[in-house]
Amino acid sequence: KAGVTQTPRYLIKTRGQQVTLSCSPISGHRSVSWYQQTPGQGLQFLFEYFSETQRNKGNFPGRFSGRQFSNSRSEMNVSTLELGDSALYLCASSLVVGTSGGNNEQFFGPGTRLTVL
Amino acid sequence: AQSVAQPEDQVNVAEGNPLTVKCTYSVSGNPYLFWYVQYPNRGLQFLLKYITGDNLVKGSYGFEAEFNKSQTSFHLKKPSALVSDSALYFCAVRPYNQGGKLIFGQGTELSVKP
Known about the structure:
The structure holds two protein chains of two kinds.
Chain A: E1 5-7, E2 10-13, E3 19-24, E4 31-38, E5 42-50, E6 53-57, E7 64-68, E8 74-78, E9 87-94, E10 107-108, E11 112-116
Parallel strand pairs in A: 2-11
Antiparallel strand pairs in A: 1-3, 3-8, 4-5, 4-9, 5-6, 7-8, 9-10, 9-11
Chain B: E1 3-5, E2 10-14, E3 19-21, E4 24-26, E5 32-38, E6 44-50, E7 56-58, E8 64-68, E9 73-78, E10 87-94, E11 103-104, E12 108-113
Parallel strand pairs in B: 2-12
Antiparallel strand pairs in B: 1-4, 3-9, 5-6, 5-10, 7-8, 8-9, 10-11, 10-12
């Protein structure tokens, strides 16, 4: 089975621009989560999508948004980029996760390295 | 507040020696606990998880972890370290009733020297 794929792997943008990152989950996985990884803040949860619905959101400003398509692929968008948005953005997928969270582990993609100049 | 703490930024071990990477957590209800490993310029790889049952959990690559409810700890262990185990290790907890959200510790850099 192919793993989680993320495109692009690297991005360089300037302040004020917007960016869209893409994630294709493992076949059969319906839950997709996004995380931001920075040296200072570590790994922080952005949001989770399940069956095209956002079911959980972390503490990020509204400039960060996402969506999920009927084939479970997901995109996240960051508008009006700031220098502090430079980070590794990780996508993770898992099997059906109930409201209790479930015990399914998440499988992570290689990430998209975003640099904001 | 729900949180995960990894008290050591770095752990240094000689090859062949046992290793322990520490993790403590604070979460309401019964937690689901996970360990992940990250190699340079790579995503996170799943190592093992604790859901319920036996307090000693065995995972990939010879790693195991011991769940201790009274100490709210979930330490990662390996009887004999390899140089190839050198990487960044993350402990994570999934709070109850928050979907798939994971709360991660700050990570521990493991360095295994020959």
